[in-house]
Amino acid sequence: MTVSLRNSDDNKWVMVGTWFQQLAELPSAFLDYQESSNPKVKRILLAVPSRSLVATAIAWGFSKHAFENPASHSASFPAATLVDVAEGTKVRIVFPVHRTLPKRQIRVGKIVNVSVTGRLIYVELMTNESSTKWALLPSATYSLASEATPEGDYWETLEVGSTKEVAKRNFFNFQQNPQALFLTEAGAFFEELRFQFREPSLLEELSVNELSFEQANRLDRFTDDKFSHFINTWETFKDFDSYAPGLVKQLGVFKVVVLDGNSALDSISAREELRHATILGIFETGKKTLQDRGAKSFLGEAMYLNPIEGFEQLLGWKAPDGIRIWGWS
Amino acid sequence: MGFELSSLNAKYRNLSEISYSQNAWRVLRVSDEISEAAYKALGFCWKEKFLGADHYGDLRSSLRDAYVALRSLVGSAASMVEHLNAIAAELEASIEKAENFLSDNERNLLANATEAFREYARAQKFPLADAVLNELLDQNRTTSLVIEDALSIPVAESFYDGLRCYSTIFRLMANLSYRDQNHVVIVASPDSARVNLDQIRRLLMGGETVKVTFVIPSWWSPGAAKRLNSELLFGLDGAGANYVSEIGSHTATDGIPSLDIATDWDLSIPPRPISKEIEKFTNSGPVPCNLLVLEQNLVMPIEVLATRLTVIQKIGDDPGFGLEQKSPMDATNAGDVVFSFAQVSEREFIREQADILLGDDLEEITRTQLQWKSRLQSVGGEIGWSALESRLLEVDVSKAHRVRQWGMDPFLIRPQADADLEKLLFFLGFDSAFSARVFEATRRINHARDSSGKSARKALAGAMTDEIWTNLQKGYACEISLEDMGEATFIASKIKSFDQTERLAGVLQVRRILGDVHS
């Protein structure tokens, strides 16, 4: 379905061309191929005229794919059973909805200590190296979270009601199914996330009028996790050194790491930390800066792998005119 | 919006048009027997190699102008004839000036070349110009012309009023509107030294054009389209990739000087190999070094423990350049470009410039420095440097082991720590008023050297051009003159590898670009 975007500073909706839709279909094609292929794809290079809206189109594709293909839900348990959970286990605690606030608190952290006094369950939780003690009512629930799940304290607007749309909206906002990590430049990418977004089928399904592009893409920042969903994550490649040690532990959960643009390719393609990840490089042919270095840095890593002949056809995906794709396994 | 969404859609529409076009990107070769004959005659002069000598500078330049005109001068016939005659006259004048140095054979070759060029100037028809005009009269698109020689833009503009004509792809790109269906006609081979592959990629694949045609004489740069096809997308689509088609008639290349000789004509390549002009690495001296191995048999010795190296980098989309600090290994891996002063060490140059900055105060500052340094020298000479070091340690001068350098090295400004300087001056018997003068003098020198270093580097970054950059990337070492910096000349070259074998280098050879001792 056609996507329209609008800069929040003006009122004109612009329908993006079919190229955008084709890019948004790449994640599904890639995930299907990845599931059936052996050996797996390790490197993908996408040559684009400009990186504008390319990474975000791909993020939208991943978000949509995750929404339409929900992974099995993690089992939810009553808070009272927390006493049986081992110390150091990461859990995602969902607090009961506040009476006056249409929001619910979600907290992700590691268990330090649990005790029960009367009706209350006291949990000491270590979240981002800060320990807090909480008294939970029996109606609170928790689920076991993977090691890679970002830790934090989230206040999510909770849709109240029992309709299918409400359930979908809540699922959309809280879904845990990590897809792609985007390592990019903050400026333009950040600006794109602020666009307002319309895609009729999604809006209809969620029964909302519009979303921000950030909401639709379900993109959260790696070093500043704001939302309780865990679908797509982004961070600036320039600060890679500072967050790389933490990232390495979580890389395995992402289906692909997107290096967005020539500068990102040049800076971090050859980083040891990314060597075993599946990388999708976005190479800009329309920007003369760092073309040679960016491409050579990426291809320097890809040369250790085997090129996949006819990759575009094998994906069952049609690249937009002016965009080319190559894969290595 | 940082970018307009509608412009992005328009770019993809343009790219779509290219996808459905048969010949969106072409190298159009134009046959012209007269220009080919003139090219051969000029090439034979070049082949003889006598033009390399210093006193043939003007002659070399005139021959080059003639050659460039043959391959790229286009415009109305009348305008072309006028311009070609001017070039021929200049060529004849240069030959006359060089008359006394020429052998009979050389004279004959030059006379033949001049006559062949005159023949071209007398021609009534100019097939290259006709082919260019034919492309420009594209009714369906907005056409623009790029020619490699900025001086011949007025001739090209004689084609018709309102022609959009540029001397570089970069300038063209700055003036293209994505809303137009642009057809760009370039009178240059895609692999000539003046055309940068990154720019071609941007021009062809950036979505701002729907058609690009390189129009060149059939005798120029055989195989240019094939080379472009293999390099445009880094060979990713294999040897059979055919993004750019080559059309037009080919003539036999028998008797045409080889491509190597042809590219020697290019303006941007130094007429003499740079390694002949510069000092060679002596492989001896007191400083343990590793060698950065550079293009064109050049090397740069850097201290064994060096952690930082300054490299030149291109910044952003604009034609801007800047300097960046990197580790030697990172710079090597990235194939970065290093630089140094051609004749003197950078330190020496910066000192000279700093002296200029100090102006009238230099004399007083030098006198103050001399005063405490000479007293230090005499005490050192009197009681011995090691005894002096012990005495200074007793009064808590922390870096007392450096006392000999403080006294004997005229370029070492002062002890780094304020406390050391203060205690040293007190030890030498100077009062606090003199001590204050020394602090001020050394502060001024440090400041002037910092400023001069920054200015020189800024000037270097400012003197860089896309053309120099292209040549550096192609593996040529380049000389860059800074007109406002005492006509200082930098040499810049790209790093090929990092030889970590320990060697010794002279103090004045460290961090300078030098000829390899084996070359």
Question: How would you sum up this structure, described in words?
Answer:
The complex is a heterodimer of chains A (about 325) and B (about 525). By secondary structure, chain A is of the alpha/beta class. Helix content of chain A is about 30%, strand content about 30%. Chain A contains ten helices and 18 strands. Chain A has helices at about 20-35, 55-70, 165-175, 185-195, 200-205, 215, 240-250, 260-270, 290-300, 310-315; strands at about 5, 15, 45-50, 75-80, 90-95, 105-115, 120-125, 130-135, 140-145, 150-155, 180-185, 195-200, 210, 220, 230-235, 255-260, 280-285, 325-329. A seven-stranded mixed β-sheet of chain A has the order 14-15-11-16-17-3-18, sandwiched between helices. In chain A, strands 4, 5, 6, 7, 8, 9 and 10 form a seven-stranded antiparallel β-sheet that branches. Chain B is α/β, with parallel strands linked by helices and about 525 residues long. In chain B, about 45% of the residues lie in helices and about 15% in strands. Chain B has helices at about 5-20, 35-45, 55-70, 75-100, 105-120, 125-135, 155, 170-175, 195-205, 225-230, 260-265, 330-335, 345-360, 360-385, 385-395, 405-410, 420-425, 430-465, 465-475, and strands at about 25-30, 140-145, 165, 180-185, 210-215, 245-250, 285-295, 300-305, 310-315, 320-325, 335-340, 480, 490-505, 515. In chain B, helix 2 runs antiparallel to helix 3, helix 13 crosses helix 18 (about 430-465) and helix 14 packs across helix 15. Chain B is elongated. Chain B starts with a helix and ends with a strand. Mean pLDDT of chain B is about 85; it is low at about 250-275. The interface of A and B includes residues 191 and 295 of A.
